[in-house]
Write a structure and sequence with these properties.
By secondary structure, the chain is of the alpha+beta class. The chain has helices at residues 5-17, 65-81; strands at 21-22, 33-39, 50-61, 85-87, 90-97, 101-102, 111-121.
């Protein structure tokens, strides 16, 4: 049985990114930096011991496009740093994160997107 990856990331990533992280953009949208993570499923359970989950993420900043780019690189580094660690009682074996992609949102707020595949050991 795999864990709720979105909840785990909402607990862990703010300390690594120094900005709010959630699965939805609040209304009103926060000023400054914000990261959204979404559980995107993934392949079938690899076996009873290991599970691969996929998440998509968005890093946005109302400060500037350059700040959004810097945040996106920090998000990628934060995902990479999770490999080989235990987070909230969940062992994360490996993480593969894509290169950030420029994708301004519909409100013209600077945003980068990416995805990560997280290999976890089932409890």
């Amino acid at each position: 049985m795999s864990c709720d990856i979105a909840s785990l990331l909402i607990d862990v990533l703010p300390g690594k990114l120094d900005c709010p992280v959630d699965t939805e953009i609040p209304d009103p949208r926060p000023d400054g930096r914000f990261v959204r993570v979404v559980d995107a499923g993934g392949p079938a359970i690899r076996d009873w011991v290991l599970d691969e989950v996929q998440v998509t993420w968005e890093a946005s900043s109302t400060v500037s496009p350059a700040d959004a780019a810097l945040l996106a690189l920090t998000v990628r580094d934060a995902f990479d740093s999770l490999a080989g660690t235990e987070q909230d009682g969940q062992w994360i074996c490996d993480v593969t994160c894509t290169r950030p992609r420029w994708f301004p949102d519909e409100n013209r707020i600077p945003r980068y997107t990416g995805s990560a595949i997280i290999l976890m050991q089932n409890p």
